[in-house]
Amino acid sequence: MTYPKLFRKHRRAIAALGLAFGANLCFAADSPIATLASTSSCAKHIWADRGRAPLGFIKGVALVYSRRYCELRRHTDTAVTVMAGHAVHSAKDALNLYGKAGGSDVDRLRAVFALAMGEGMRESSGNTTEGYDKTVCHQTVEIAEAGLFQVSHDSLGRSVWQQRVIDQYAASPSSCLLDTFLEGVRPKTIPVVGVGPGAEFQTRMKSCPALATDYAVIMFRVDRSHFGPITRKEAELVPECEDLLRSIEKEADANCP
């Protein structure tokens, strides 16, 4: 049975668990939130050794943040509980490393998405089509990294929410925001490594950047060791990007479904 057929078979059960990811959570790429992102100081920031981010990357992360912020306001039992809550293991939590683990749930959610902007710029320069690291010898389907945050199939299993967000986006491909994230990007054509579930994982992370963002944010809170730039504190956490997310919260407060 193929993956889409398997999902359709269990769609009702997944929706009952609060995992359906319908259009009511998706803010359009031409929404006021996208405009806020486009005109923000965050969008103008010059990232160390990377330059200015592709505009679509900042807009895309901002839109994904608005979705999760609305879920947090509604006290929804989704991946936002891991993204915004207190870490189970503080030593594995990126926010703890960056001194951002305190405050409210909203403070942590804002900080971890701002950190996602910095990590995405370090890993891929904000390019969702980025493939495996060609400097790594002896690539395998399990360790081959892909997408904005250069995650690999062997990262699965740290949290139940990792597979659940994959299922959410499989059910609603339009929520991937691919066209948004591609704005200002020169697409790459690096092939995936191997076949099977690991290769499918690489394809998903490159073709569904909103998924890659959510997936990475979960990982930041449960196992930061997967991300070298975070462990070395090379990923920037820029105050102007936190300010952007604060402005998005005000906009979302009036528009959250």
Concise synopsis of the structure shown:
This protein has 257 residues and is mostly helical. It has helices spanning 3-9, 11-16, 32-38, 41-44, 55-73, 80-84, 94-97, 105-124, 160-171, 178-181, 197-207, 209-222, 228-231, 239-253; strands spanning 46-47, 51-52, 145-146, 151-152. It contains 14 helices and 4 strands.
Largest sheet: number of strands, sense, barrel closure: 2 strands, antiparallel
Structural class: mainly alpha
User: How many strand elements?
Assistant: 4
What would you report as the Rg, rounded to the nearest angstrom?
17 Å
Structure description:
- The structure is a single chain.
- The longest helix is centred in the middle third of the chain and has 20 residues, at 105-124.
- Strand 3 and strand 4 (151-152) form a beta hairpin.
- The strands form two sheets. Strands 1-2 form a two-stranded antiparallel ribbon.
- 51% of the residues lie in helices and 3% in strands.
- It is mainly alpha-helical.
- It has one domain (3-253).
Descriptive keywords:
257 residues; two-stranded antiparallel sheet; mainly alpha; globular; 14 helices
